Amino acid sequence: MPEAPRQDSRTDSPTAPTDEELRTLDAHWRAANYLAAGQIYLLANPLLTEPLRPEHIKPRLLGHWGTSPGLNLVYTHLNRVIRARELDALCIWGPGHGGPSVLANSWLEGSYSEKYPDASRDAEGMELLMRQFSFPGGVPSHVAPEVPGSIHEGGELGYSLAHAYGAALDNPDLLVACVIGDGEAETGPLAGSWHANKFLDPVHDGAVLPILHLNGYKIANPTVLARIPEEELDALLRGYGHEPIHVAGDEPATVHRAMAAAMDTALDRIAAAQRAAREDGATERPHWPVIVLRTPKGWTGPAEVDGEPVEGTWRAHQVPLSGVRDNPEHLRQLESWLRSYRPEELFDAEGRPVADVLACVPDDTRRLGATPHANGGLLVRDLPIPSLDDFAVPVDKPGTTTHEPTRVLGDLLARVMRDTADRRDFRLVGPDETASNRLQAVYGASGKAWQAGTLPVDEHLDRHGRVMEILSEHLCQGWLEGYLLTGRHGLFSCYEAFVHIVDSMVNQHIKWLRTSRRLPWRAPISSLNYLLTSHVWRQDHNGFSHQDPGFVDHVLNKSPEVVRVYLPPDANTLLSVADHALRSRDYVNVIVAGKQPCFDWLSNEEARVHCARGAGIWEWAGTEDGAEPDVVLACAGDVPTQETLAAAHLLRRYLPELSVRVVNVVDLARLLPQGEHPHGMSDFEYDGLFTTTKPVIFAYHGYPWLIHRLAYRRTGHQNLHVRGYKEAGTTTTPFDMVVRNDLDRYRLVMDVIDRVPGLAVRATAVRQRMADARTRHHAWIREHGTDLPEVAEWSWNA
Amino acid sequence: MPEAPRQDSRTDSPTAPTDEELRTLDAHWRAANYLAAGQIYLLANPLLTEPLRPEHIKPRLLGHWGTSPGLNLVYTHLNRVIRARELDALCIWGPGHGGPSVLANSWLEGSYSEKYPDASRDAEGMELLMRQFSFPGGVPSHVAPEVPGSIHEGGELGYSLAHAYGAALDNPDLLVACVIGDGEAETGPLAGSWHANKFLDPVHDGAVLPILHLNGYKIANPTVLARIPEEELDALLRGYGHEPIHVAGDEPATVHRAMAAAMDTALDRIAAAQRAAREDGATERPHWPVIVLRTPKGWTGPAEVDGEPVEGTWRAHQVPLSGVRDNPEHLRQLESWLRSYRPEELFDAEGRPVADVLACVPDDTRRLGATPHANGGLLVRDLPIPSLDDFAVPVDKPGTTTHEPTRVLGDLLARVMRDTADRRDFRLVGPDETASNRLQAVYGASGKAWQAGTLPVDEHLDRHGRVMEILSEHLCQGWLEGYLLTGRHGLFSCYEAFVHIVDSMVNQHIKWLRTSRRLPWRAPISSLNYLLTSHVWRQDHNGFSHQDPGFVDHVLNKSPEVVRVYLPPDANTLLSVADHALRSRDYVNVIVAGKQPCFDWLSNEEARVHCARGAGIWEWAGTEDGAEPDVVLACAGDVPTQETLAAAHLLRRYLPELSVRVVNVVDLARLLPQGEHPHGMSDFEYDGLFTTTKPVIFAYHGYPWLIHRLAYRRTGHQNLHVRGYKEAGTTTTPFDMVVRNDLDRYRLVMDVIDRVPGLAVRATAVRQRMADARTRHHAWIREHGTDLPEVAEWSWNA
To answer: What class of enzyme is it (chains A, B) (predicted)?
Structure first.
């Protein structure tokens, strides 16, 4: 049984803050505002111990002030409730350019200096904190991996709420606050994420507290949600299943009081909902609170600059005073702005924050910048992955039996799901495709998370389920990222063509991982694993619109230290790569595998060895006699492997004197030069596999030019001839698809004949036989709508 | 002044349908249901004139029944109101697998047979209609380009409502109905699209009538919106700014009556809102109606199969009876299902629909399958593009003056915007970045569309504006696609890194165009034009997360007949390619250009010639003497061009005896072989430009391997050495970015020295000088946070 969630602390509702407490909260907020503004402007003189002079100002003013005061307010008030209620909390800072704020707060609470001792909590460290911001080689203006307490960068907007829900899943004691900017709220992914509350289990999951921050403006425009009537906004939030709590104002004392009350109300409601579900067995979906915070953009910054209103307008988005080094009036305004926070009251002579400022700061790992939930590698435990012997399919002779690879994998995933029933640290996500992708065995171990209404006809819906299905690739990806970043495991199964929907999200995750790997204090997290299935070659009823194998190309543009791509050709190799992927850390593993019946080529042990090598000769399939072969048939992907083996079979029959080598590639990065990817083969290995002089006919799963892009530096590259998907798709049969793209067995044999020099005259007749078979195919399919019997019934051992 | 929108017809509210009319509506609906089911199953015996036998059934049953009856209901009732109110209407069919329904209706109304005469409106044509569906080489199950009346394929879900709004913009007399499936409604892009009503001008735009079809299930799961309480759904829709009208039931007669009433109510409200805005000058945003339609999934199909409930469950999603050819009971059930529509009452002995069935069908181009708005090429007019002479910047000497290229383009776009003020057929879309991307001159010609609240501080907001800005790349893309597909023009300006957000959408648009181009009845539409700016090399304050030049790689995987990629190196070349793009048809043009000050290299006339060639030698920049050069410095993109020219400058100074050729590439597809892209160069041309034997140092804007992927077949490929972005990004200065990625002038000179054989010994000293400059750069930037003065102040003529 999972440990019972702790409930005591958050159910005590502390009283409203005293005036004294409000005063210290304001001190904390002012200190954070001071530090945020200082980061944008100051190179030196961080405490304003002397009058501000141009040489104290950075030569290039880069950064964004607008969102900082609001984020600082939230940080301050989260500090209060975390301390008062002894909460474990994490905050997702959604708005772009929130860096100065979160850095300021982390520095104030001390978590920053713990990670970066040079940025000590004193004047010297403060100067470094300010100087490094948006400085060449310094820290970026978003809440990047470098920022303690962050699992979400912001800047590419739209994913905060999905990340928040991912973090809250299976973290019953965790409060995940999520600040959503009103710009970000206009994006589709964010708009769709609100419905994630229909998947949040109040018993086993933590709470998400969205804080919709309406500061009214984006870069240069008002925001939609700030400019619709409040009753419309309330209806929207209620429609999303939330109970709105409003905080609005521009007078700090009033806002502090209102914000504290709103936080208390929200947390009381959350506690009540969790108590009802956990203690009283309530099953209705709670109407979780949402805080709507309206404060001016660039609040407390310059009200007017050069005669134009700035505070409370889009002009406060970036650097409100842009001419500080050259314009004495701007310099004066900046000094007066900075001094308005009364830094002398906030920091002692050594630049250390005074006790009042720190009064609200929680202890130790309760600090938002120090929570291990934002450094998930500290919490992650190895997954219990069973022996593959229990799941591998028996293969006595290659190419005789068939299995649906993803169905076989489904059995393994079901076991993992079952073996994590108590730990609850493994989830499967997918856009309504788990069963379509034939992984439904997992339902035997865990149902599908669902908190909305149910009907008797429903199957496998489960209020406590760990399979996540919603028709939104964005939400699936966001959930999984949030889950992994907080130290858990998972797999995303997706139609191959539509994983492009999350291209931009995976970019950011790869960038996050690449940066994190270089930060010694960030512990490695579990890899993001994709199973791409229902792939390009088997879109029988969907046709052209559902055919796109380009995600592999997309990820291979990214940091090689993070990206791995696997194309297992059968069930046992799929098990092997999945096993490897689920054990790995800090990678993005892309596994492409079919769900349709597929020949079994390798036994479990053979699969293990082959996948460990990543590419190898299938001796049994070729006709080599010890000398260098006449031709290499290479393949990567399940359908290309089948066509290549069928071509090898034809060659064995019709041109038995030809010495043929069959090479299968599972791990695509093996083709890259050694210096370009950790998995890249040495030239010695590559030349040994592919030869340097013989024709290589390479049948590849995706766009053929990708293979050239990987292998162009190899000696034998000019002999490499690649067949793959070339956008010749439609609604048709499996074999017709490969024929249309010239990837079929007959074409591969023709390619061999066209490229191997000095073949006997008889080869011309064989070539004609192949061409005739293609013609026969075209006629047959027009007539019958099915594939040629000789193709449909083919097997390696026939 | 634009012509006053026509208002008379839609303001008459016809009375409710009579019983007789309801009877004929039901006949139409039954006929459509019959044809939809028949398409999934029947090879022959389309009218069931003989008992159904296994040989009448398709060998592979592919297709989806679940959504069809609901879509048929909507089509039928749209027919009624179009006819009764003399509406010009278009319908977007959002749900996936809506093909059988829309094909059935188009065939019934005759628009199908007009496009495809073989599918005549008789028994023979009906057999073809049924047979071709999901048959190899036939028609796909989605509402693909092959389907008359379609501008939206469905299947990749989430874009219907955005397309609908795009179609309605500047079409004041058009009603755009939009059926949104409840699966699709879970996607982020769809969820975000509801707010498009804050951008719809009731005066100059048409109306969008969303019809949210809650049939309750996706592939294998219930849907969220069907399983939240109705008051929550109502709140959500009201929060989106809509007034919901509910229709629910499973008894056809009742539903027909309710649907007719709902349509009348909705259209009356739309007419009233338009009248108020157009005649009475009302300026408040209308609360547009939305119809919520709840009918069973697979309605009127088999209630139970093999003892399991099917109608009204997810089991009705695909083929409800799957064993028809082999299982006599399934065959019997199918026959009884098909006969339940009483085909003998619906079609005459020749298979022609009887008069009752056709009673609701509108005339001629009012038919949904015949509206020219769904075949926008019929309506498109050439854009009035002014002479570039009026906008080109003067260039007396190359590399002396600088301009911000996008700002120069902004002036041209402003003129186009102004010159289309009456026609209203040009729009600019962008995610809150028009000004950030320095195109703000357009505001002088048209403000930003905005129907939400305004404040005195706002600038350029305009209820009638044609610049569209919302922080959603999905909505921008969807709007523009809908606008183009209905025969208008536009341009999408976007941060380069974040255009990946729409990777999957552009895939579908390219696939749509590729298919459309092969359909003789589809007239060419205006191209989808991207301006990608704020690019990888100038993310000074955003850093690593905002650096991604891979969209070019993404689109170049797609159909070459559709895709064009341009990298203009300066302001005048940007004007030239933009001019070309805006005039073109049926392409996706990707233009990558910077917004930062950039040297002017070519005069207007030189730019025109250079862009027409797509790639060429810049003689003035090189040191050739007539013989073949020693080295080719090639470049593509503004920043690489600058670094290449600076490298050429250094070589001229330090190694004057070296014969250097400078080649600039604007049109990236020129590098492809002639047979692979219509713009591909012949080998003769390529070899003439790049030589076959000399080293080519290619400085490219994006991922360097893309150039290899394009050029690997060229003779001189082994001499090609490419520099580009290799994910070495951070928050830093412009020059530090190129240094980090080894694309800087000093590195390029070192590359030349490393690769040109037989250089004088002195070259070693020059190489060291370059390495020293890089070292000096590193020290300077650490100290000053700025670029070396010698770099910052460099110009070609210095």
So the answer is: lyase
Please tell me which of the candidates A223, A224, A471 has its beta carbon nearest to residue B218: A471
Query: Which pLDDT score, from 0 to 100, does residue B13 have?
Result: 53
Chain B residues touching residue A435 (CB < 8 angstroms):
219-220
From the list B611, B609, B616, B566, the residue with the least C-alpha distance to B588 is B566
For the stretch A725-781, pLDDT in tens is 999 988 899 999 999 999 999 999 999 999 999 998 899 999 999 999 999 999 999
| pLDDT averaged over every residue in chain A | 95
Angle formed at CA B50 by CA B46 and CA B51, multiple of 5 degrees: 105
Contact A340, A36 (CB under 8 A): no
- Mean pLDDT over the full length of chain B: 95
Least confident of A126-130, A427-431, A687-691, B309-313: B309-313
Give me the residue spans of the domains in chain A.
Answer: 19-375, 389-599, 617-792
Residues of A in contact with B707 (CB under 8 A): none
Q: What does CATH list as the number for A389-599?
A: 3.40.50.970
* A249 vs A60: CA distance, rounded Å: 33
Q: Which CATH architecture has domain B388-599?
A: 3-Layer(aba) Sandwich (3.40)
Of B19, B15, B7, B180, the residue nearest B81 (C-alpha) = B15
The CA distance from A38 to A272, in Å, is: 41
Which whole-number Å values give the CA distances from A614 to A47, A577, A598, in the listed order?
58, 10, 20
Helices A571-583/A604-613 angle, 10° precision = 60
The per-residue pLDDT for A69 is 97
Rounded to two decimals, the ipTM of the complex is 0.96
Any B CB within 8 A of A308 CB:
no
Q: What is the CATH number of domain A19-375?
A: 3.40.50.970
Pick the more confident residue, A534 or B523.
B523
CA distance A261 to A16: 7
Residues 204-263 of A with CB under 8 A from B: 218-224, 227-229, 232-241
Contact A110, A156 (CB under 8 A): no
Segment holding A278, helix H or strand E: helix A252-279
- According to the model, what pLDDT value does residue A626 have? 84
Residue among A136, A191, A458 minimizing CB distance to B188: A191
> What are the residues facing B242 on neighbouring strands?
B288
Chain B residues closer than 8 Å to A675 by CB: none
Closest-CA residue in chain A for B499? Answer: A504
Spatial contact of B489 and B425, defined as CB atoms under 8 Å apart:
yes
What's the whole-number mean pLDDT along residues B220-248?
A: 97
Q: Does B736 touch chain A (CB under 8 A)?
A: yes
Strand pairing category for B563-566 and B588-592: parallel
* Nearest CA-CA partner of A109 in A363, A333, A301, A305: A363
Is the pTM for the entire model greater than 0.90? Answer: yes
Residue B197 phi, psi dihedral angles, 5° rounding: -65, -15
- In the CATH scheme, what is the code of domain B19-372? 3.40.50.970
Compute CA distances B707 → B550, B695, B713, B744, whole Å.
12, 15, 11, 18
Topology agreement, domain A389-599 and domain A617-792: yes
Q: What angle do CA B480, B484, B489 make, to 5 degrees?
A: 90
Say whether A507 and B500 touch across the interface (CB within 8 A): yes
Of A220, A435, A452, Cβ closest to residue B432: A220
Do the beta carbons of residue B672 and residue B573 sit within 8 Å?
Answer: no
Span A617-792 CATH architecture: 3-Layer(aba) Sandwich (3.40)
Q: Is the pLDDT of residue B764 over 60?
A: yes
Q: What is the pLDDT of residues B699-730, one digit of tens each?
A: 999 999 999 999 999 999 999 999 999 999 88
Q: How far apart are CA B327 and CA B438, in angstroms?
A: 67
